[in-house]
## 1
Amino acid sequence: QVQLVESGGGLVQPGGSLRLSCEASGFTTTLYDMSWLRQGPGDRLQVVASISSGARTTYYLDSVKGRFTISRADAQNTLYLQMHNLTTEDTALYYCAARWGRSDYRGQGTQVTVSA
């Protein structure tokens, strides 16, 4: 059974940091392009960061550049998102996604709330 399980979300003050993790099971992440997506209250779903198979390329949403870092540990079938200097605009449900060919998986999400 294919699963992506996110963890690491929570409540943090502005300027704080969080590290999200996504553990994959039921498939091997090595060949997959992996991404973090988010959807804030009243917002559309957006790609926050992505990392290609083999970590050759990365992409970041402009608003998170310099604050977020995506990384992968394929030996552990795990994807990470390190987030620093969080703002209230980062409040959202964060999802992990994996894509390879016609295979496209997404987790249930972990909530990140940035509030004083």
## 2
Amino acid sequence: VQLVESGGGLVQPGGSLRLSCAASGFAFSKTTMKWVRQAPGKGFEWVASIIPGGYERYYADSVKGRFTISRDNAKNTLYLQMNGLKPEDTAMYYCATDPHRGQGTQVTVSS
């Protein structure tokens, strides 16, 4: 199993970023995927999940209405569109399918 995230960076409050996760080594199209994050000095926080067909998506209350999880099964890629970013969204973001996760991509929201 290999999960490689990209798309993080530094953005001002209110800005947007789109994270991507390239997956390989398993049946991506048949696997529920999720994004989790870890802020400095804190534990992991679940952000969003999407079922294999993409028709059902679930979000943490802290990101609901601002973030959108999606997937392209033809490309074995998971996405997280993040709009209306806040300083409290600053964290390392990981794509994951238990028990595996990638190396993460850093998102920093600051003016």
## 3
Amino acid sequence: EVQLVESGGGLVQPGGSLRLACAASGFPFGKFAMGWVRQAPGNGLEWVALVSRLGRHDYADFAQGRFIISRDNVEKRVYLLMNDLLIEDTAVYYCVAGGIHWGQGTQVTVSS
């Protein structure tokens, strides 16, 4: 059974940081590109960042310079370090494997 379990969300003040984690199981993790997608209240899905099988990173414009995606192929985990958080970063963040497997999401709320 494929499982992607996110953790690390929560409430943070503007300018703060959070590190999201995603634990993967049930599929060949090292063969999949891994990414993060978010959905803000009332909005559609928005791609955040991607790390390829070989570790190449790509970021949405809003994430460039603030967010860092990384992966650990031994532990089968992917991370998203989010710095300088803005109120508009408030969303449910989903871990995605290969564009086809999704986690249940973790809530990130940026508020003073």
